[in-house]
Amino acid sequence: MRTGLVGVGLLIVGAILAAVTGTPADDLAALAERIWPVLLFVVAITVVTELAAEAEVFRVVAERLARLGRGRTVVLWAFIVVFATASTAFLSLDTTAVLLTPVVVLLARHIGVNPIPFALTTVWLANTGSLFLPVSNLTNLLAEHRLDGIGALGFAALTLVPALVAVLVPVVVLAIVYRRELARTYTLSAGGPAGDPVLFRWSATVLVLLVPALVSGLDVWIPALAAAVVLAAVFAVRRREVLRPGLLPWQLVVFAAGLFLAVDAARSLGLTEIVEALAGSGSSPVDLMRVAGVGAVGANLINNLPAYLAFEPVGTSPDRLVALLIGVNAGPLVTPWASLATLLWHERLRGLGVEISWWRFAGLGLIVAPLTVGAATLAFALLR
């Protein structure tokens, strides 16, 4: 409820600022045109995940995944690193946060280990691993339009080096911080079949088909919405009581919409000029570090998507635009609202009964975010 109330407050503030600054209706319509697909995707993918969890898909996947580790936690964790990176690269950070989080939490419970290292691996790599392809992050899709139709392969070639570094740094930090937990061994316990085989088969099939559909070139909200409608229809027949208003992440939608409106209105009050002054100009390594740093701080202050929209004017060249993406993609690891993926991840954790201190999350983020953004930007600048 707190997130929703903050969102309502932001909507009110944004509306007041828009009225005071005389923001044209066409500008507000253009903003709505850019953000509604993002919010619809978040709603649809959340519904899909909730229903798949009710069908016990994630529990069964977790139990089978546990066998791959052969009793060694660090081996299992390595598989999670690979899966989180691949999922983020090809399916987007929000999809990773929503789909992989319940798997890793249930996996940790199944083998009797602390779920926090696995959960942090998921959310950190959901953010830092989102530099590989345009589909990896909605900020990338927005930036691709400024790169003169560079395409997926051209984008990947431009961002490959910083993308690899942005994955490597948090993995090293996690391996050091949680070395004792990861060094443990485990014994597999017997699992069981899904309670409703029909719901399980439908849910598993929809998820399998959704993966390629999300990278098919269609707007991601289209396959996500189709998947949500199909699963809702199946559950309406098999378990109607599951279809409740609580399936919809309305608090996150209100919060995100409020952020977008407030930041867009703030641009009319001189935010763009302030950002341009902070980010400077030029494409030397120092200049690019400056751009990335501004992007990372902005993402943690106001969320990475509105931060990208607010700071987009400083991306005056491909190099500066990539530096900005490094900041807003790999940097939002400190505040809970820094990315929608982090908010979705936390919602999944709460739904699974896992608690993590935001103070610890922020403390670790203050270590790994500067290291990741700095190393990725420096690698990009020196190897260009």
UniProtKB/TrEMBL annotation:
Where's it found, cell-wise?
A: Cell membrane
> Which residues are listed as membrane-spanning?
34-53, 74-93, 150-177, 198-215, 221-238, 250-269, 289-309, 321-346, 358-383
Where in the numbering of this chain does the Citrate transporter-like domain appear?
A: 13-316
Q: A GO term (biological process) for this protein? A: response to arsenic-containing substance
Asked whether the UniProt record includes ATP-binding among its keywords, one would answer: no
Q: Which GO terms describe its molecular function?
A: arsenite transmembrane transporter activity
One Gene Ontology cellular component term attached to this UniProt record is:
plasma membrane
Q: Which UniProt keywords apply?
A: Arsenical resistance, Cell membrane, Membrane, Transmembrane, Transmembrane helix, Transport
What's the chief localization of this chain? membrane
Q: Give membrane topology per the record.
A: Multi-pass membrane protein
InterPro entries documented for this protein: Arsenical_pump_ArsB, Cit_transptr-like_dom
The secretion signal range is none
Q: Which family does it belong to?
A: Belongs to the ArsB family. Belongs to the CitM (TC 2.A.11) transporter family.
Record protein name field: Arsenic transporter
Q: Which organism is it from?
A: Labedella endophytica
